[in-house]
């Protein structure tokens, strides 16, 4: 605690003590003028009878001698002169009137015997099983039965089959509530999807929904964890995806879909686009987004390939230390010797570049301890890392640091990510170009240059595949707007191209203040609409121009709060922002659902039917939203 905090704390404590002392003196004076048997008048004044006062006070252990009592709410000490409790009642009335009512409620709850309701118990039991991913058979275990009967001997016990049937019923009833919630969304919905294979080799299609609610809060929700049968072709994925959306009546609200870079996802999007056209539902297949985190992973893996020999020495050292409890103990002792945080080394996973970054970062923190551990152990002397190799690891870490920060930032689901995609692509590309153009010997040497070149080439490849929605989202983010393109010297031709792409979508799909229907027939202009089309387009351009005349918002601005405040002034832009700023730039939300599947389906619990898995995982997610 700093000096200011201490001063404030002491001042408050002093102030509180003075108030208590003054009140005590005042009440002592009043007590001397109050007759002991005049309880009726004091009860009328305070609203409390004598016995009720003791609900809020505790008598001193020597109460018979000193007549002292302590307030249970604020620890103030009073003396009950001549046996009167009037000062206690006045204290409660003056200082704790609201707490008094609350305490009365608590007292009533504990004093009043609650009738046992077996249905309430069962509902809570189902939630406990789902949320903590317990086996259904837990209700048949003898110890569990004893526990329930000890709490309530009259409790009606249920079987594992009853639990399963009830959970399936809960899935249906909660699905109706989720469907109603999603149908009330004022704008479009974007999705992430991915496929997970369980230890029992069942494949599941994971689908998450991302949208902005009527209060301008970005929401994300697991809408399905459905078993997919047969080959994972684009057509099969499309059929499973469409069925899941139709199950919730949201198949007409699709704006964007974010997936990993697997080739079957391209055929999935094409098949979905064809299905949408056949069913007269508007869907732009260009709103397919390649997971930005996957792009970074591919780009950095390209960089790490030429660096394998530079990393192999460190990797071998860590593997040998981790596989020996004695060596781990020695490393821990050496950490203390060098006054280093006692941390365990991290072994990377080849398919996850960020784990390689974590391995290097941790090793650099343990540099002295790792070096001494290797040098002092004859079995590790072949793994001793030289000073040159440590310097190379420092350079590799420095190069990868921005990629790590970008991955962490773009993997979030509580804030807009698509609007930063163009900006971050350019930051990463510039980062690689600066390394390539550097004349510093440590950076320009061949070992790192080849890695950076490969990384830069892959980044540019995927950057050129970004779609117009990324440009649009950037403009709709008040932290960027058109200013981002103008101030970063994109050139007049590119700036005009970006503006025209934005206005093309804006004028055709957001020409009204309310979100447009997904049915193309509803987009056809009536005679009156055609008459006023020119004026409407002019108004839209004016709204767009006025928005861009505003200063760029600070970096810590919440874009959704901005549009909540400015919705009435820029209604068309706000509708557009509601849709485009909700699109996720990565498929991480789907991947995060894999962990739920791993906890539910294990090596010892692998016979759950696909429908049961679907219900359990969906309910756990839905209850977080519905509650």
UniProtKB/TrEMBL annotation:
Positions of region (Disordered): 12-44
Gene Ontology CC, one term: nucleus
Chain ranges of the BED-type domain: 48-109
A GO BP entry: post-embryonic development
Source organism superkingdom: Eukaryota
Subcellular location: Nucleus
Coiled coil: none
Family annotation (SUPFAM superfamilies): beta-beta-alpha zinc fingers, Ribonuclease H-like
Transmembrane region(s): none
Keywords: DNA-binding, Metal-binding, Nucleus, Transcription, Transcription regulation, Zinc, Zinc-finger
Main localization, broad class: nucleus
Pfam families: Dimer_Tnp_hAT, hAT-like_RNase-H, zf-BED
Statement: the UniProt record of this protein carries the keyword Ubl conjugation: no
Record has S-adenosyl-L-methionine as a keyword: no
GO molecular function list: DNA binding; protein dimerization activity; zinc ion binding
PANTHER family in UniProt: ZINC FINGER BED DOMAIN-CONTAINING PROTEIN 39, ZINC FINGER BED DOMAIN-CONTAINING PROTEIN 4
Quaternary structure annotation from Swiss-Prot or TrEMBL: Homodimer.
Designated name of the protein: Zinc finger BED domain-containing protein RICESLEEPER 2-like
Native species: Rhizophagus clarus
């Amino acid at each position: 605690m700093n000096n200011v905090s201490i001063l404030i704390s002491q001042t408050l404590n002093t102030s509180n003590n003075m108030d208590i002392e003054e009140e005590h003196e005042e009440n002592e004076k009043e007590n001397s003028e109050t007759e002991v048997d005049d309880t009726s008048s004091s009860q009328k004044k305070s609203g409390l009878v004598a016995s009720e006062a003791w609900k809020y006070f505790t008598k001193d252990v020597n109460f018979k001698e000193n007549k002292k009592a302590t307030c249970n709410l604020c620890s103030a000490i009073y003396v009950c002169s001549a046996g009167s409790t009037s000062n206690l009642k006045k204290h409660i009335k003056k200082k704790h009137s609201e707490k008094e009512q609350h305490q009365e409620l608590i007292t009533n709850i504990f004093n009043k015997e609650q009738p046992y309701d077996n249905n309430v118990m069962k509902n809570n039991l189902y939630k406990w099983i789902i949320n903590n991913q317990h086996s259904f058979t837990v209700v048949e275990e003898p110890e569990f039965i004893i526990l329930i009967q000890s709490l309530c001997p009259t409790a009606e016990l249920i079987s594992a089959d009853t639990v399963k049937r009830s959970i399936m019923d809960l899935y249906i009833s909660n699905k109706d509530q989720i469907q109603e919630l999603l149908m009330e969304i004022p704008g479009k919905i974007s999705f992430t999807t991915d496929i997970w294979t369980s230890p029992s080799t069942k494949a599941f299609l994971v689908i998450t929904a991302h949208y902005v609610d009527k209060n301008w809060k970005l929401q994300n929700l697991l809408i399905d964890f459905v078993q997919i049968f047969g080959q994972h072709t684009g057509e099969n994925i499309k059929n499973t995806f469409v069925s899941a959306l139709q199950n919730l009546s949201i198949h007409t609200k699709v704006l964007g879909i974010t997936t990993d870079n697997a080739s079957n996802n391209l055929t999935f999007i094409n098949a979905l686009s064809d299905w949408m056209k056949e069913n007269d539902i508007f869907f732009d297949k260009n709103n397919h987004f390649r997971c930005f985190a996957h792009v970074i992973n591919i780009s950095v893996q390209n960089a790490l390939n030429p660096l394998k020999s530079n990393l192999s020495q460190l990797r071998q050292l860590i593997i040998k230390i981790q596989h020996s409890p004695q060596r781990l103990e020695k490393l821990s002792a050496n950490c203390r010797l060098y006054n280093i945080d006692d941390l365990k080394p991290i072994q990377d996973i080849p398919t996850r570049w960020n784990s390689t970054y974590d391995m290097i970062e941790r090793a650099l923190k343990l540099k002295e301890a790792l070096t001494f551990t290797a040098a002092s152990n004859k079995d590790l002397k072949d793994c001793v890392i030289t000073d040159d190799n440590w310097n190379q690891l420092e350079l590799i870490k420095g190069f990868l640091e921005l990629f790590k920060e970008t991955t962490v930032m773009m993997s979030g689901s509580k804030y807009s990510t698509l609007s930063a995609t163009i900006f971050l692509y350019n930051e990463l590309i510039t980062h690689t170009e600066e390394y390539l153009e550097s004349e510093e010997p440590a950076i320009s040497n061949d070992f790192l240059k080849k890695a950076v070149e490969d990384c830069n080439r892959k980044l540019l490849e995927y950057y050129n595949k970004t779609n117009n929605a990324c440009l649009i989202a950037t403009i709709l983010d008040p932290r960027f707007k058109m200013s981002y393109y103008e101030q970063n010297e994109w050139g007049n031709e590119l700036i005009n191209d970006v503006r025209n792409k934005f206005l093309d979508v804006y004028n055709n799909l957001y020409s009204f203040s309310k979100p447009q229907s997904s049915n193309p027939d509803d987009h056809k202009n009536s005679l009156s609409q055609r008459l006023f089309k020119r004026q409407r387009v002019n108004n839209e351009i004016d709204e767009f121009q006025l928005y861009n005349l505003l200063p760029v918002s600070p970096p810590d601005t919440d874009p959704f709060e901005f549009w909540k405040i400015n919705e009435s002034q820029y209604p068309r832009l706000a509708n557009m922002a509601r849709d485009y700023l909700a699109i996720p730039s990565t498929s991480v939300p789907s991947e995060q659902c894999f962990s739920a599947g791993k906890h539910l389906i294990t090596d010892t619990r692998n016979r759950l039917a696909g429908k049961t898995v679907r219900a359990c995982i969906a309910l756990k997610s839905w209850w977080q939203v519905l509650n």
